[in-house]
User: What shape does this take?
Amino acid sequence: FDTTIGPLQYADQFLQLSIKLPSSNIYGVGEHVHKQYRHDVNWKTWPLFSRDIGPSGEMHNLYGVQTFFLCLEDNTGASFGVFLMNSNAMEFAVQPAPAVTYRTIGGILDFYIFLGNTPEQVVQEYLKLVGLPMLPSYWSLGFQLSRWNYGSLDEVKRVVERNRAIGLPFDAQITDIDYMEEKKDFTYDKVKFQDLPNFAAFMHDYGQKYIIILDPAISTKNLVDGSPYGSFVRGESKKVWVNESDGVTALVGEVWPGETVFPDFTNPDCTSWWVEECKLFYNIVPYDGIWIDMNEVSNFIKGSIKGCAQNDLNYPPFTPNILENLMFSKTLCMDAVQKWGKHYDVHSLYGYSMAISTQKAIEALFPGKRSFLISRSTFVGSGKYTGHWLGDNAAIWDHLRWSIPGMLDFNLFGIPY
Assistant: This one.
């Protein structure tokens, strides 16, 4: 483990270490669009900081953070892996020496090194450390159909029936946020999706399953009919939101439903509230699995409706080469407070903590059974709780091509589903 290629930089909010490598066969580190599986070592810098942005091919930070890379030595087949246990925003730079540099703006330099005769051995060692992948349900290995904006349940049923009529293998139907009333979690549109409580039975009659989507952001507003929005009221009574820098005032942002607060899934009280909300909704609209989205965490405005304070967390001395070069772009203020710490330190763990809470909901709903869970945002070890999908692609050939290195990358990260 040769770190003589560059000096160790160790300052407050800036830590850097470079590693000289025995070969240019470097794989892993994510989540990004890697157009090829093996890294191009010609002076590339990959930022890591979870972000709601589609996989368009530029070198920017995508939905999740995976800090593990594997190096396959030339000729011998011997391999090793390097993992930095750190959740702060960072950069991973590669150069033709060959060498790599980790540059992070917080936490500590906590490195794990895995040695193996083969790449498989290295990945096995890494997964023993971060957690073995969850075993998916058998039915979730089948074909699934999902689209944003079907428009109505009648349209969804027509799609299902067309596929049944031609005998196309098809195991699960998913509905996106258009099933909700005004895009609010744990509600359904009583007009366009009025028969949703019976939809799971309609699927089960043919041995098929029904999967719903849930986003983290919770609307602060009442429902269409003026009645209070129960999920918000119950969460508010338990104080389960991410707070402003004072640690007590709920941070308010804006997502699909409009003005929203953000559950703090690092708070055990929040987990029990979330599990209960999943149960209450299941009693109205039965479902077979859950797809969690927008959990980078995504916010349509910068930081909060109040803006973000001028300080070293929101504007650190060094900002990694992240999209828009602004820490709170499309997410929360970095000085926001969660149970696990300042958002600055735990931002990239949001999707990970949400997956753990949602897995607990699934265990409560389907005791002793395997169900279905995929998360857009992931962190090291997420595979123990959830699967993943590679994000909001545009169904073009380039995106199909880039999904292949993406799937191979996530096998290295312990998220084979």
Summary: The longest helix spans residues 268-284. The mean pLDDT is 97. The first strand starts at residue 9 and ends at 11.
